[in-house]
Amino acid sequence: YFLNHIDENDEIRSLNGQQLIDQYKAEARFLRALFYFCLMRQYGPVILVGEDVIAPDAPSAEMQQPRNTYDECVNYVVSELDKAAAVLPLVPERNGQPNDAEYGRATKGIALSVKARLLLYAASPQFNGNTDLSEFKNAEGIALISQTLDAEKWKKAADAAKAVIDLGIYSLYKDPSGDPIKSLQGIFFQAWNDEQIFARKRNGLAQWDVHCEPRQAGGWCGIGPTQENIDSYFMADGKSITESPLYSETGFTDVSGRRIFNMYLNREPRFYRDVTYNNAIWQGGTMKEPAPISFFVSGPNGRNGHATDFSKTGYLIRKNVGPTTNIGSGGNGQRQDRPLPLYRLAEIYLNYAEALNEYSPGNPDIVRYLNMIRERAGIPQYGSGENALPVPSGQAEMRNKIRAERRIELAYEGHRWFDIRRWKIAPQVMGTLHGMDISKDGDAFYKRVETMTPHLFRQSYYLWPISQYELDRNRQLIQNPGW
To answer: Least CB-packed of 15, 115, 375, 406 within 10 Å?
Structure first.
């Protein structure tokens, strides 16, 4: 309705004429495309309504509409994003002039980044030749998910990511000190830096902070990474824990008077930015001084001290946790406000490397952009630089390295659940999950144990179910497989 009628608004025309109307239209078009994509990554193919406005008093017969195929949805959303990108400014503007106060509004780079992520998903095994969904058809018998593997979809994804890179206005954030951990922290705490493509100005990060903070800091010990997540981080030599001679899962080392389990030593900088482990130093919330954080059963954050507020794995997330947030007790304390990055350049680099490896294995850009991520993270690169590692040999090995890098770099940013589904590996990586033994004190704590009821993953979980209420209202809707 907005798109169809905004041109009739004389008040807006009197302010800034057609330029402002065109901007508003492009923003509305972008938002609609974004929300379509959000639906598609949960439900798969959806109903494309297009430009037609459905009257609020329309009879039920006019509401009976079938789902479009997934490829039709992708093509439509890509077209809408391209239309928006052609009009949206390169940087946030007001009255046609760059204006920092407009950060958070849609830009050309934001529209192209959503397109890049969408096309990466569309090229992935979940939606590209997924024969597991061969019976998922509309009333006319047409498959809603393409049954033919199309390698060109990977090229479209690579080209879309490269288009964002080629805008030339984004760069990986690096702290002037050269300290990798400060660089990694600055991604989130240096507001509107050049790595942040699409960030949400208003957000719930204060709740994230208090859920991730330990009870020692007035937090709730609410979000703990699994042992599988801990194991995914590289060692300081850039190798996995199964490849590196630096890794040890036995014994302890004295570090500044703290007894540290050797599992947590010699890890890469992203590990120390992302994870609070037993006896790690933390200061935040109500804490006046830095102090070790203990998850022992009888310790200050252990399960004996609170019925619910304790880590179930013996770890807490510290990535993008604002240490000055202090709202855990009464809810009215200080909040460390900052924008929440939804799309950032590091993801675009990883999207590009992944798509290029699938379409053009051996392309030198694959290693180039993967190494940019590793260089900023402070770990050895593949084939170049100090302590260089061998370049992964072959498409399959490179695929594994890209996925491992993506898991670490984008950890706790809302990607992993969608990644394991689009790669069709969810059943292999779900199931039994582990942590430290939070029922113990002392050395007995440092033992891998099952932390919860195994996460059952059925094939139907690859797509969310459509509610029965919607199925009853629209008899042409086809339910997702397995529901």
So the answer is: 15
In the three-class reduction of DSSP (H, G, I as helix; E, B as strand; rest coil), residue 362 is classed as: coil
Query: What are the CB-based long-range contacts (under 8 Å, 24+) for 465-474?
Result: 466/43, 473/60, 473/63, 474/63, 474/64, 474/65
Q: What global pTM score does this model have?
A: 0.96
Query: What are the tokens at 132?
Result: 């597991």
CA separation for the pair 170, 323 (Å, rounded): 27
For residues 454 and 261, give the distance between their C-alpha atoms in angstroms, rounded to a whole number.
Answer: 26
* Buried residues in 237-260 as b, exposed as e (16+ CB within 10 A): bbbebeebeebeeeebeeeeeeeb
Q: At what angle do helices 108-123 and 10-43 cross, to 10 degrees?
A: 20
Q: What is the CA radius of gyration of the chain?
A: 24
pLDDT in tens, 355-374: 999 999 999 999 999 999 99
Contacts for 245 with CB less than 8 Å, ≥ 6 apart: none
Strand segments, DSSP code E, in 29-181 are: 93-94, 97-98
Q: Give the integer Cα–Cα distance in Å for 283 and 256.
A: 16
